[in-house]
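REQUEST ID: PR-0412
SUBMITTED BY: lab tech R.K.
PRIORITY: routine
TASK: structure prediction, single protein chain
INPUT:
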Amino acid sequence: MTNTDAVRRVERAIDATGLVVTGVAEGQWAIPTPCTQWDARAVLNHTVGGMHIFAAELNGTDPGAEHESDWLGVDPKGAYAEAAEADRAAWNRPGALDTTVHISLGALPGPMAALIHFTEVCVHGVDLAVATGQQAVVDEELCAELLSVMRGMGGFDAYRVPGVFGPEVRPAPGAAPHARLLAYLGRTVA
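STATUS: complete
OUTPUT:
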């Protein structure tokens, strides 16, 4: 994967998740998601926090809060839009992928950090889409691409730990790429 491909994937995930966030109805923030430990608001808060943290790491700045702080305030959609702008700018900064990114998993070279961030934004966008009944707007091609990348990674089972990814579950016959992706990560999709 080239550096251009890595940034393109992150940008596509930001856009795809942004489309879902825009479609979340006001009364849906407290509903459960396939990421069972979090409701829709918590999933978005985690995603927005991660976007700010990655952007800060890439820019050599302080994110201003901890990952699980309240990043959304009273305007979840506005908070996502702000984070998306900062995140996109950081990944497109010249030399961004030459940066070592420090996150809870440790110090990561830029391309690996981009893959992890792509995974986080894409998967949590799908979590929100499924929870809020917006599967029709999911970027199925992007989900299929991510699933292919994950299946091609050696040692992926090391990430199958509580709080990260569960054991793979069997998707429904003929499941769409987003449902196969979530099943691969241990999420059950009705």
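NOTES: The beta strands are 100-103, 106-109.
REVIEWED BY: pending
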